[in-house]
Design goal:
Chain lengths: 367, 170
Amino acid sequence: MSRLLVGALVLAGCPGDALLDEDVTFTDLGSFTTDDGGLVSVPWEAPEGVVSSEVFCGPYGFDVLATADAVTDPAGTAVFDDDAPYDGGLRVGALDDMLPVLVPVSPSLPASAGVWTLSLFLDASALPATVTCGMVNRVGDVAADNSVDIAVIFVGVDGISAGMNATSGAGDASVQAALAALGDLWSGLGVTLGDVRYDDFSGDVATYSSVDGYEEFGELLRTADDEPELTFYFVQDIDLGDGASILGLSGGPPGIAAHGGTSKSGVAINVANIVASPDQVALIMAHEGGHFLGLFHPTENDMSGEDPLDDTPVCATDADADGTLTSAECADAGADNVMWPTAQVGTATTFSANQAWVVARNPIAKP
Amino acid sequence: MSYLVFLTFLANAAHADEALRVRVIDLLSGIETSPSAAAWAALGPAAAAELLVVATDPAALPTQRGNALLALGNFPSPAALALLTANLSGPASDSLLRRKAALGLARGWGAAAVPTLSAALGDADVQVRMSVVRALSGIDDATARAALQGRLATEPDAAVRKLLAAGVTP
């Protein structure tokens, strides 16, 4: 059956669906109200021929966290349990404002047709609370080689390089060097850059050019367009509240794919270093873009957990026993992977076969 | 024999310096996380010398230099104070370094940094002014609040005014 026909059948079955691409649909699932304990069951249906399926619920505000108490597959099997979040083939974060759950994030738990159930837990003081939920489903073919369309949104960064705006970005040497290096890194995932769209941020540049905290980060991502693309916001600085610059941040992970307007609909990249080191900015784009597309750190550097993939190295060598893994300590156990939490330019250059498998199935990857 | 012991001592010291340098650069280069005060304290006072080197190294990446300036606030010294003050006030210093210097001054010197920070409330760069306002807002001191209140009347940018208004509220 052709991909177009499968897409048409999905649409015919769900008149409220929006067709985002020939194989990708968004469905508004409506409102859900928790019980007094913050729990609510959210069923979502993956269609026949499903490649990937993502459900998401919110917004519930930036001062509230939510996670999945449990997720069950169409057979009724529990595939995620909050009591053991690093077991099995699914990962669900504890996130502010909007909670996405993406299947698959591991070959050990592929997407399958039928009704999945998210048992959402909202850690709010005012309960019961109501959220709205939606889902994005992808059907059709899967290939080893894919393209990903991207949007580059310049948020008041023309003080770093004069050409960093929508008019000149396509000709700016630093921007183009970073995108070329991103293409090189993502070739290890079987991903090539598809359409590249440039735009200038149309909101409050003074506030969002230097992202200060998760709330500003989420508000910035809410401006992402409703397109099957990965939106990179280029900003002057990202500071999570302690004053220090960090280099990038992804909605989620995973991000909410092919659906704009949420606090998990894109990625912010600190481009303060782009003139001195476009390769570093490319690495951060590859890493944060990887998160958005469903990849996690092979090992968290505080040793709190691992990704669900069995071909990425696990590092357990905290040589100085300080509770934090460094790139040097894990030189032979994951630090060469782009998704390593302290990835370094020139050292972190690889992706695993299973990481490529996951990205190939993301709703915005195009065979 | 004593000469060999001396050489071994020197080699071990160099190795320790290199390990410290690598660790400092690692802490200054977090992708999604930043180091806690405890992480800097664990490295001991020798880390301050490495931070001074990075903060003044024009070949270091801008975010590493900026984060080094901020982290010097964890190791207050006359040399660190002079460097942060020069970066905040120096016309040649770029926006990122001025911003991190402001936050480092507040972190390390608190109320004693209020005169220097207050003078920077009129910086031409909006992002610098926002960082200076955040720095002053984090200092529990009447002169800091008075400086914020004074700027509120003349600040032209709406985003900075919003921060100023939050900063003067007890």
